[in-house]
Inverse folding.
């Protein structure tokens, strides 16, 4: 068995994606301010997440949309207005348009855009794991897919989306030009501390959760979905976690490291994470000064059998219960506030102007 990396070593062998050349500046919420929470739902078609050839054009069903109301009722009761980041199949089928349009018209949500290249026209690239990340496409093709998606959303919901999330968190410096051209103001594409290089995607392992502005005049606000390494490994967390994942499954090294409190990779999501994980992650980030949090999940998890996280009705009830428990914890025990994507942008712009 290979020796684990020494504690104190670099957290990643790669610097990951950088945006410094685009005029990156931190978007400070203020250390003394109340924590802010955005609920973001990647609203997309169903496909087999575990299949070798999962990125196929024909996977465009949106059956999970029939359960969107079930989640929305929960958010209504908690006083939360989520943002549904919708992709092309969702924006072009009545089954998914109808409930979302009703939520929007009654002021209960926001609508944003979510680009899955393999089911978004024009279909010019060869579907593959690498091409499932929008940032890997030729810039012109990524831009045209984005433009067609925006037009579909405008046609379906009579609003122009201002918030975006790249499919599979495939966002890069070249993506920014297309987003600004289409009038996007906020991005939720960065996913720390996950590393997608094994599929040809970006490496977010060295990126934190702090929002930042890109471009002159603070044109694009980038808000990473919330995730981090938790444990005493510190700067060695990524290297230690990757070493543990390389061990044979029977060794259960990742679980051992988590139980020891050394390192655990967590995302603020009810998909695959327990309520105590979400609280532990939030507490760790709060102690580091984090004040902006994004609770996220995928719409297919609302229909049993569509994702690995929800295989039956009991799993679905548990997922919704984790959402409820976390939001009540955030708004109650932490004294936090739920905000929409647009409200978050205004808040950070105002606080930045007064800093």
């Amino acid at each position: 068995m290979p020796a684990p990396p020494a504690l104190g070593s670099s957290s990643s062998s790669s610097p990951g994606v950088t945006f410094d050349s685009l005029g990156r500046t931190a978007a400070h919420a203020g250390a003394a301010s109340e924590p802010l929470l955005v609920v973001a739902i990647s609203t997309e078609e169903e496909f087999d997440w575990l299949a070798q050839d999962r990125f196929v054009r024909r996977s465009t069903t949106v059956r999970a949309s029939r359960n969107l109301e079930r989640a929305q009722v929960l958010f209504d009761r908690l006083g939360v207005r989520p943002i549904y980041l919708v992709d092309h199949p969702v924006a072009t089928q009545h089954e998914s348009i109808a409930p979302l349009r009703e939520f929007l018209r009654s002021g209960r949500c926001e609508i944003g855009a979510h680009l899955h290249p393999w089911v978004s026209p024009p279909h010019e690239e060869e579907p593959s794991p690498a091409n499932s990340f929008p940032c890997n496409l030729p810039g012109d093709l990524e831009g045209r897919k984005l433009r067609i998606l925006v037009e579909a959303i405008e046609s379906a919901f009579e609003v122009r989306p201002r918030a975006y999330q790249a499919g599979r968190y495939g966002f890069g410096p070249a993506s920014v030009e297309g987003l600004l051209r289409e009038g996007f103001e906020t991005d939720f594409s960065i996913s720390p501390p996950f590393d997608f290089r094994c599929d040809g995607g970006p490496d977010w392992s060295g990126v934190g959760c702090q929002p930042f502005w890109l471009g002159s005049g603070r044109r694009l606000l980038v808000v990473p979905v919330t995730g981090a390494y938790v444990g005493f490994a510190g700067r060695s967390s990524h290297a230690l976690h990757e070493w543990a994942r390389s061990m044979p499954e029977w060794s259960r090294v990742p679980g051992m490291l988590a139980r020891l409190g050394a390192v655990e990779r967590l995302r603020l999501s009810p998909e695959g994470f327990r309520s105590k994980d979400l609280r532990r992650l939030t507490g760790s980030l709060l102690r580091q000064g984090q004040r902006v949090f994004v609770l996220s999940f995928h719409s297919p998890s609302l229909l049993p059998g569509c994702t690995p996280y929800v295989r039956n009705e009991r799993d679905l009830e548990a997922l919704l219960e984790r959402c409820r428990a976390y939001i009540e914890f955030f708004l109650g025990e932490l004294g936090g506030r739920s905000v929409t994507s647009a409200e978050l942008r205004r808040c950070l712009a105002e606080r930045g102007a007064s800093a």
